[in-house]
Amino acid sequence: MSAALVSIAAQVGAPVVRKILERRIGAANAELAEHVVAAIARQAGVRYDEVEQLATYQPDRVSDAILAVESASPELLALYTAELEAKAAMLAREDEGHWLRWLWRPFWMYLLAYLWWWNIQGAHVANAIWKTAIPTAPFEVLLGLTVSYLTLYMGGHTGKAIAASFGKGASK
Known about the structure:
single chain; mainly alpha; 2 domains; Holin (3TMs family)
C-alpha cells in the first residue's frame, strides 16, 4: 500500500489500520487491505483510486478517515482472527492421524513420474544396454492412471471440468 497512508495511520495512532496496510497481519492479506483502503476512501468521500493522491495533498482529511476506520476495525480484526483460527484448526487436523494419510499423494506423484520416465526413456535405454526386449506399458493405460490420480488428488470437480472441456471442444 501507499507509504503515505501507512505513515498517516502511524501518525494519528491507528495501529490496526497501519498493520493491515503494511500487510503485517498475514502474508496473503491483499483483500483485507483493499477493504480497508475502500473504507478510508468512503470516509474521505473520494474514489478508491484517489485515496493515495489525497493522502499526499490533504493528509488531514485522510487522517480523519483513518481514525473513523480504526474505530470500526475491531469488526474487521475479529473477522480476520476467525479466519486465522479456522486455518490453524485445518492445519492441526492435517497433522493428526497416521502417516499413510498424507503419504499416498507424494508416493503416487513419484511413482507416476518414474513410470512416465520408464516408458519414454528408461526401458529403451535398458533394452539398448542389455540387448533385451523389456516391454513398456501402453500410453493409454499410463494416461488413464495419471488422470485417475489427478482426479483423486485435485478432487472430483477437476476431473469433471476436464471432461466437460473435452465435450465442448468436440461440439465446435
